[in-house]
Write a structure and sequence with these properties.
Blueprint (H helix, E strand, L loop, with lengths): L1 H19 E8 L4 E8 L12 E6 L2 H17 L7 E5 L5 H4 L12 H20 L2 E10 L1 H5 L13 E5 L5 H11 L6 E10 L2 H14 L7 E12 L3 H13 L8 H8 L6 H16 L7 H13 L3 H14 L5 H12 L3 H11 L10 H27 L1
Parallel strand pairs: 3-4, 3-5, 5-6, 6-7, 7-8
Antiparallel strand pairs: 1-2, 2-4
InterPro entries: AB_hydrolase_fold, Esterase-like, Mycobacterial_A85_antigen, TPR-like_helical_dom_sf
GO molecular function, one term: hydrolase activity
Keywords: Hydrolase, Signal
Length: about 400
């Protein structure tokens, strides 16, 4: 049933997809030719806005562009990755020349080097000047181009932050020293590689050897994922690899889920507002985009604070929510809860009352707030009567 639902959803996404794709041409002095591009901008793209978007460069854009553009639509719909600019480089009959590498080094030479420089010195600057791109760039390649994109890793300053190498035809030094190269990065690098049990034998063996190298790399800045699919061949593994790679690369961007709450938030050493701030700072620093903390995520972290009996976190989460969105009742509501829990009923009542003057949030029932005000009013009356009785006695 779930598989059928996913198929229907994918079909629904594909219907408007082609209408969103535009075509462009870029004149290259490096190639002495004009190259065609397929471009898909986010649905809400506004060139006058200051919002920035990750840039995904799809080599083998002739056949890889559409499945990747569809996957991006699918994952952004569920907020599992940020809206992104997807650019496919149409290579056609030039593909062999574009991916031409030295047999010994495995690095581009002659026509391959010209194409390498075209991407680095012409294509990327052209896209950065034309669109609102963030600093986060993803390179995707299959087979020959899956090997080719590794050449950017061997530059002093790699052009891409994430590499999706689908059944790459690894060769030469790249094949033998890929793991060694990945040991030395001081900035965050994502590397994904995939093969399958029915992949081309010589490609599969080289990929498995590379995986054994990379798996031993001890570099906290490297995030490495590897998939060895079953019953897929050299071509059918592409769709699975695209979905898996994007799911992993953008894992930090996803909304807070149960696994993270249990494994990272609950045992966090410090107040939980710090966890939220740090998490979203990392998203901004890594992807170059500012993602707001949602009401639902605040609520999830407050529940963890309650689970920890952590009143300090409750207070600080309230202050953070109020600072980030002062027009919302959310922060004031949490501060009212905190005051109530520490016995400051008069302050709690005033905070609940002021919360009612602010904007609603989806998961807080205003009737409940009214009931809390009534409850605290009765408590204040009973407390006052008790004090008067004590004075008389």
């Amino acid at each position: 049933m779930r598989k059928a639902t996913l198929i229907v959803l994918v079909c629904l996404f594909c219907i408007p997809l082609f209408a969103q794709i535009s075509y462009d041409e870029i004149k290259s002095s490096k190639l002495n030719a004009v190259r065609k591009l397929k471009i898909k901008l986010p649905k809400d793209y506004d060139p006058s806005s200051e919002v920035k978007y990750p840039l995904i460069i799809v080599f083998d854009g002739d056949y890889l562009f559409e499945p990747i553009a569809g996957q991006v639509d699918f994952q952004t719909y569920f907020d599992d990755m940020p809206s992104s600019i997807v650019v496919g480089v149409v290579q056609g009959s030039e593909r062999r020349y574009d991916g031409y590498c030295d047999e010994v080094t495995g690095l581009p030479k002659e026509s391959g080097l010209r194409f390498h420089n075209f991407v680095a010195e012409e294509l990327l600057p052209y896209l950065d000047n034309r669109y609102n791109t963030s600093k986060f760039r993803v390179a995707v390649g299959h087979d020959l181009m899956g090997n080719f994109i590794n050449s950017y890793l061997f530059k002093e300053d790699p052009l891409f932050n994430a590499y999706v190498c689908i059944s790459p035809d690894l060769s030469g030094t790249v094949r033998d020293y890929l793991g060694k190269r990945l040991e030395f990065f001081k900035d965050d690098i994502f590397y994904y590689m995939a093969t399958s049990d029915k992949d081309l034998p010589y490609i599969r063996q080289a990929v498995l050897n590379a995986d054994s190298q990379i798996s031993q790399v001890n570099n906290q800045n490297l995030t490495y994922y590897f998939d060895d699919f079953e019953n897929d061949n050299h071509y059918t593994l592409v769709n699975s690899a695209i979905a898996r790679s994007f799911d992993k690369i953008f894992e930090l961007y996803k909304p807070l889920r149960e696994k993270e709450l249990e494994e990272k938030v609950l045992p966090y050493e410090g107040t939980l507002d710090e966890y939220l701030v740090d998490r979203y700072d990392r998203i901004e620093n890594l992807f170059g985009i500012k993602k707001p903390i949602t009401e639902q995520e605040f609520e999830k972290v407050v529940k963890v604070a309650e689970q920890r009996n952590d009143l300090e976190s409750l207070e600080k989460i309230g202050k953070l929510a109020k600072k980030l969105n002062p027009e919302s009742l959310l922060g004031t509501y949490y501060l009212a809860q905190y005051s109530e829990k520490i016995g400051k009923t008069k302050k709690a009542k005033k905070l609940y009352e002021s919360a009612l003057t602010l904007n609603d949030v989806s998961h807080i029932d205003r009737d409940f707030i009214f009931s809390k005000i009534d409850e605290l009013t009765i408590a204040d009356t009973d407390e006052q009567e008790e004090e008067e009785d004590n004075e008389e006695n």
